[in-house]
Every structure is written in structure tokens, then in C-alpha cells.
Amino acid sequence: MGTRLLPVMKIGFVGAGNMAAAMARGWASAERRPDRMLFCDAGSGRAAALAAEVGGEAVDSLAELGRRSDAVVLAVKPGSLEIVAEQLDREARAVLSVLAATPLKTLRERFPGVPVLRAMPTVATEIHGGVICHTPVPADEVESGEPMLALVGELGRLVEVSDELMDAATAIVCTPAYLAVVVQNIAEAGAEAGLDPELSYELVVETFAGTIELLRRYDPVTVRTAVASPGGSTEAGLQALADAGAADAFRRAVEASLRKMRG
Ligand SMILES: NC(=O)c1ccc[n+]([C@@H]2O[C@H](COP(=O)([O-])OP(=O)(O)OC[C@H]3O[C@@H](n4cnc5c(N)ncnc54)[C@H](OP(=O)(O)O)[C@@H]3O)[C@@H](O)[C@H]2O)c1
């Protein structure tokens, strides 16, 4: 199937960091993509590098970015919201915010009268993977919201979440970072046990990939008991994890993340 253009054609990225790069790379290789991507940073040069990589354009000011875009993606740290809203100088025609811990009320205060959608993607948007939580499109913002959402849907599976539950969803979609810790540590333990480090890493990653598929079919207890036979070596490993408080550690990670978002 060829590339189809959607009504939202020009996307302006406010910020060119990790999240902007993941989304821009995802769109650059998607079937349906913006016909133009513009980027602006705070002076690091990342906007120009990203524009060169994905075939977009870096612009000098946020006012120009807003003026030349059908919608802007807010991809700065939440603490920069106020300043970028000022710098956009009322030029944004529609806003997609991926800012953590920033409710719709705050966004609407900064962009009065502008259609606003809130989304929580993950860096897996780069490979069109994972989920993208988003707030519902309000009835009076369908014209800009629905095409924007269709475009975002090219980057992963859309899951509608209320504004009130977005922090909880955000704490869960931090999962790539937690899984990266798990993979790194098991791979390092494999290397310490004598495996070539690269082989150990590959074994863990590929085992993870297969396990994710299994977890789509079976619940976690079924998968766990299928691997750990009573009295066996995996059960010994699970017991060591329990003794170290692994389950509590993951709960504490989610709780800490939520506490941070709630200030
Ligand atoms: N990383 C994730 O996995 C993830 C997932 C979901 C949501 N988010 C959200 O995405 C947002 C960005 O996170 P990130 O990890 O991408 O941060 P990041 O890598 O630090 O990138 C932030 C970007 O904002 C730019 N910036 C700051 N002030 C600016 C200004 N006045 N005008 C233009 N650009 C400005 C920075 O410019 P310079 O390059 O010049 O410093 C940088 O390119 C956060 O709100 C976060 O909550 C992140």
C-alpha cells in the first residue's frame, strides 16, 4: 500500500529530544505520515540533526514553527510548557501534548481556544510498537482531533484514557525503562556465568520477545508455572527474586513515578 496523506499535513515539533525523535522516526517510516515535519529546539542543534535524518526542516523560532504547522507536538519537558507557550506566540492552530503530568486544564489555560489533545506515547513509536494512551477527542474538536489521532495511530496502538487516569497510565508506560533494567541485569549475570556478553544479551532479548508473545496468549501465572517446575532451577531463581523483594520493587517504582508526577 502506498503512502496516504491525512488532513493534518504539517506537523511542527516543539522540542527535538528523545520523544520527538522517536515519533518523527516512526512517522518517517509509516504508511501514512505528515507531508512535512518541522522541528525547533532550544539551541542544542538536535532539531537540525533530526530534520536531516527524517527529511524534515529545522526552523529558528517557535512562532515560525506554529505559523507553518497545522498542528504542533509539544515534546519539551513539562517545566518548559509556560515558556514554549509564550514563544509560540498564539500561532499554534492545534496542539498535541505528550508532556507527562500535565493535565488538559493546564494545557487549555496555556493555549486558550486552541484544540488540544493529550497523548502518552513511548519511545517504541519509533518502530510503530507499543501503546499510545490519549485523551478522548472532544465533540467540538473533532475536525482537528480525529485526523491528528489517525496520524498518531500510525505510531502504535491507540488506547483512550481519561485525563484523570493519564498519570497512572504514564507510570505504567515507563515500562520500557524498567524492562531495560531487567534485560541488562540478566544479561550481565549470564556473562558473569561465562557466556560471551553479546551472546548473553541476545539470548535475553530474544527470550523476552518470545515471552511477550506468550503473555499475549496466557496470563503471567500460567507462563511462570510452565517454566518453573516444582523444585527446579527456575523455581530457585524465582525464590531468590522473591527474597530480594522484586515484586515490591516494581510496585515501588510505579508509586515513586506517580508521586513525582503529582509533585
Ligand atoms: N522520553 C520518553 O520516553 C517519554 C515518553 C512519553 C512522554 N514523554 C514526554 O516527552 C517530553 C519530552 O521528553 P524527552 O525525553 O524527549 O526530553 P528531552 O530529550 O530532554 O527533549 C526536550 C527537548 O525540548 C527542547 N526544548 C526545551 N525548551 C525549548 C524551547 N523553549 N523551544 C524549543 N525547544 C525546547 C530541548 O531542546 P535542546 O535539544 O536544545 O535542549 C529538547 O530538544 C516530556 O514532557 C516527557 O514527559 C517522554
Structural overview:
The protein is α/β, with parallel strands linked by helices. It folds into two domains: 10-162, Rossmann fold; 175-261, Orthogonal Bundle (ProC C-terminal domain-like fold), CATH 1.10.3730.10. It is 51% helix and 12% strand. It has an eight-stranded mixed beta sheet, sandwiched between helices. α1 links the parallel β1 and β2 (36-40). It is elongated and about 65 Å long. The model is unreliable at 1-6 (pLDDT under 50).
Compile the SSE list and pairings.
Layout (H helix, E strand, L loop, with lengths): L9 E5 L3 H11 L7 E5 L5 H9 L2 E2 L3 H6 L3 E4 L6 H8 L6 E3 L6 H7 L5 E5 L10 E4 L7 H11 L4 E4 L5 H7 L2 H18 L4 H21 L2 H8 L5 H11 L2 H16 L2
Parallel strand pairs: 1-2, 1-4, 2-3, 4-5, 5-6, 7-8
Antiparallel strand pairs: 6-7
Helix pairs in contact: 7-12, 8-9
The structure holds NADP nicotinamide-adenine-dinucleotide phosphate.
Helix segment tally: 12
Q: What is the number of E strands?
A: 8
Distance between the termini: 46 Å
- Class inferred from helices and paired strands: alpha/beta
Helix content: 40-55%
Radius of gyration: 21 Å
On the 0 to 100 scale, the average pLDDT is 94
Would you list the SSEs in sequence order as H and E? Answer: EHEHEHEHEHEEHEHHHHHH
Specify the CATH class of the largest domain.
Answer: Alpha Beta
The proportion of strand residues reads 5-15%
Q: How many domains, as an integer?
A: 2
Please identify which CATH superfamily of the largest domain we are dealing with: NAD(P)-binding Rossmann-like Domain
CATH architecture of the largest domain: 3-Layer(aba) Sandwich
Bound molecules: NADP nicotinamide-adenine-dinucleotide phosphate
The dominant shape is elongated
Poorly predicted sequence stretches spanning 5 or more consecutive residues: 1-6
Strand order of the largest sheet: 3-2-1-4-5-6-7-8
- Biggest sheet architecture: 8 strands, mixed
